[in-house]
Predict the structure.
Amino acid sequence: MDAAIQRGIDLGYDGPADGIFIVGEPQLLREMIANLVDNAIRYGAEGGRITVRIQIDPVRLSVEDDGPGIPAAERIRITERFYRLPSSASSGTGLGLAIVTEIASRHGATLEIGAPASGHGTLATVSFIRKPLVH
């Protein structure tokens, strides 16, 4: 992604080499992933790291960055349409995570926003509740 290169971000992947197959709407699933990665690039640390992870059992997609993170008190509101953190200096409409939440719901999944194990940054995890078709 050009935006990651412009910000000097190391964008990586951790998961199965062949990926996984999920029964669903491909265009929506691509949009969900793009929104999660875009948010990490936009709000993560310049020169930082972003890792996209796929876990197979249970099926989870996560995007982790090492930026300033989202305060615990704001994590519920951040998925509301048009809501943006008061301290946000980046441009945006506040729709990205609301869209991710809706797409996840349509695919029997949930979105959870937290902090990585390091305690620094943001960890967005989509957990698929329905048993998807995994290759």
User: Anything to note?
Assistant: The first helix runs from residue 2 to 6. DSSP finds three helices and five strands in the chain. Strands lie at 10-14, 49-55, 60-65, 109-114, 122-128.
